[in-house]
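Changelog note: in this version the structure field was regenerated for every chain. One regenerated record is shown below for reference.
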Amino acid sequence: MLTKIIKQSVWFLLMLILASCVKNDKVPKSIVVFGDSLSDQGNIFSIVNHVTDLKNIHMSTPPSSHDGHAFSNKLLAVEYLAQHYGLKLSPAWRYKKSSADINTIEGYSNIFASSALNNDFQKEKKTSQDYKDVSFLIKTILDNIHSPTLAGNNYAVSNATIASDYSGLVDRLFNHLSLPYQIKKYTTDNKKDIKDTLFVIMIGGNDIINIVRSSAKNKKQKISNLMPIMVDSIQRLQEFGAKKILVIGTPNVGETPVFHNTPLEKNNR
């Protein structure tokens, strides 16, 4: 465990050292983040805020920062980076409230919560009423959260992925919160000062987890297929005018709790 902490600390110190070496005339004036739970300041909780059975979920073990709405007990790495440059960073996703939508979501919330927390529900038949209800609920959520907003500059969403083609029922929600969709929302929000903005991309761990845990036979190929999506995402930012892009490597998912006491964890020892 100590070795893992040292490795992570050294990585983060190197990131700050590199950041401090940037000349003053190249210091970013703003920051934008794309990613997953490692960078999410609370976006996922804003997105499911009106799903009654999920909105009160918060991180408590270990004690979490951000009122329990972040998967960390301290500041996130991207927050330390923003602090280093004296820049503000806040969640970008907002659910556009309307009484009709909220009533709709509350009516299906227990079904959605069950499907989100139960892997077996991912295999529910498309013809079942529960499948249709959850699909309708997901569509309602997506129709509202993708509305343009000027609030926030952190687009990272917990459980987000690079790819957008995972087949589980609840994956249909997160497929539309993947890296390409995060960037699409940013460009739709039409933020300014693109050339002076530092874009941070830290994502990919959930893709590897999904692929490794799947029954797919060509797992190595599926992981390799993530790279063109990442390259395309970077190119889209460049076409939009981005000059400063920081891509952070995917963490070793074999050290995560989901693989505790599995061969993948043992192979990392």
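Spot check on this record: The two ends are 10 Å apart (CA to CA). The chain is about 45% helix and 5% strand.
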